[in-house]
Design goal:
This protein is of the alpha/beta class. It has a single domain, classed as Glutaredoxin (3-Layer(aba) Sandwich). The protein has 5 helices and 5 strands; from the N terminus they run H-E-H-E-H-E-H-E-E-H. The longest helix has 22 residues. The radius of gyration is 16 Å and the shape is globular.
Amino acid sequence: MLKKSVFYIFAALFIFAGQFLLGSGLVTGQPPVIKRGTLNGNQAMPYIAHGPALLYFWAEWCGVCRTMQANVSAVLHNYPGLTVAVRSDDQGQLSAYIQQHKLDWPIVNDSDAAISQGYGARSVPALFFINQQGNIAFASAGYTSEWGLRARLWLAGLL
């Protein structure tokens, strides 16, 4: 029994350490301005101007991002948000992926990763939770469940 407890403690510490390392360097406070428009021609920043709102960096080639698609879609039906497709060089390939997976998100194509670099997102998925004042209240990298997304958005709405 003691061996199992020690194992679970080390597993939890390993997971939290990984989240900390992936999330270090992510921007908090005032979000950098995204000057590029969405794929449907809208300005990007109004989507996250006032929260609680979600800013989600993802890539079509990212397996973890694919597992989060249903979570993000469900949350974006209830909260405002913006998504940024990172290093999606081929606009046609990105559009085909969006259609194939029926993604109805507002999406900015960050083909050169300039936007993600401005936010300190060195890996995908990266998530930024915007509060009511339009500032980044929380930032994280890696998989997050739908309930994890909803909980952080709820907390961001309180700040």
